[in-house]
């Protein structure tokens, strides 16, 4: 086969999505080179660290496809640009999303730079998203993946024009079932490999156990909405808004609750008072303290390089949610506001608020605050 389309460097993670991406690009006539990125090395001998297994799987895929593969270590960059920010955010009581920062700083910056040094015209990953060049403006647009259950545009919303212009998402046009089917048809060794979950440096270990190593624990009171102390938390950094599990207060009735007021309902984290080191909890999923009518976001990034006009859009304040109608207002260089006609549940500082115009991901920002209903 003549490689007439140029060289593409594919990030081979050891998973099936990036493996099929490499196969599809080779079928399309590209010269394909695989890169395995090592982003974390503190737990190489740990039962929770899968990087060694992933590397073996990626190498096996490269062998089956007949492509070269290189092992590149970005652990130092990851620790400086992603992990340090992750720890800072948790210490401040927020709940960051390191996958978003990893994409912006490592996969589409350090990896992209490395690929260009190898003479690549483009890079490719196994993300479920698409890139389209607008016929009128010439701008590159980030689109949702065609599989609504797997769309990952939320995690990619910080990509800029140069990054989008240099990136291919081969499986973004496919559904996951199609990807698995292709992998089995061509005999990929990881065709049935389970999808990775969670954050790469934490793996499958208990989250609190990992955070313990890096964040000082300062126990304090857990209070209900009447102000009664009903338990003790292990440190505010270890909780996130909307959290239900791991509170240690299951079965406790709300002191002072009215008869018939749902005092047997489950408890949820509703507020974190960093100044007074107090965790506030409420009962019932629909409690008003868990609902927000608006939010403010800062640390903004727009795919087009400039903010969209004020007006109505779709938005996600967390990954696993349907687009919620919103009104974008007060757009400034350093932030924006979103107003919601329908209250949003557990809007969480540190997470990202991402805007959509139909299937087009416009960008977004980090949630700094929210307005209760």
Largest sheet: 6 strands, antiparallel, barrel
Fraction of residues in helix: 10-25%
Q: Please count the helical segments.
A: 7
Span from first to last CA?
A: 61 Å
Order of helices and strands: EHEHEHHEEEHEHHEEEEEEEEEE
Architecture per CATH nomenclature, i.e. the level-2 architecture of the largest domain: 3-Layer(aba) Sandwich
Please write the CATH class name of the largest domain: Alpha Beta
Backbone structural class: alpha/beta
- CATH fold assignment of the largest domain: Rossmann fold
Beta strand count: 17
* Unreliable sequence segments: 256-261
In angstroms, what is the radius of gyration? 22 Å
Q: Determine the strand fraction and express it as a percent band.
A: 25-35%
Quaternary structure classification: single chain
What is the average of the pLDDT values? 91
> How many discrete structural domains?
3
The strands making up the biggest β-sheet line up spatially as 12-15-14-13-16-17
Under CATH, the homologous superfamily of the largest domain reads: HUPs
Assign an overall shape: globular
Could you explain how this protein is built, in words?
This protein has a six-stranded antiparallel beta barrel. Strands 3-2-1-4-7 form a five-stranded parallel β-sheet, sandwiched between helices. It has helices at 16-27, 51-65, 75-91, 98-117, 161-165, 176-185, 207-211; strands spanning 7-11, 31-38, 68-73, 122-124, 129-133, 140-144, 167-168, 220-223, 229-233, 267-273, 278-283, 291-302, 311-316, 324-332, 335-345, 352-357, 360-372. Helix 1 packs across helix 6. The N and C termini lie far apart (61 Å). The protein is built from seven helices and 17 strands. It has 373 residues and is α/β, with parallel strands linked by helices. The chain folds into three domains: 7-185, HUPs (Rossmann fold), CATH 3.40.50.620; 216-285, Adenine nucleotide alpha hydrolases-like domains (SH3 type barrels); 289-372, Beta Barrel (Elongation Factor Tu (Ef-tu), domain 3), CATH 2.40.30.
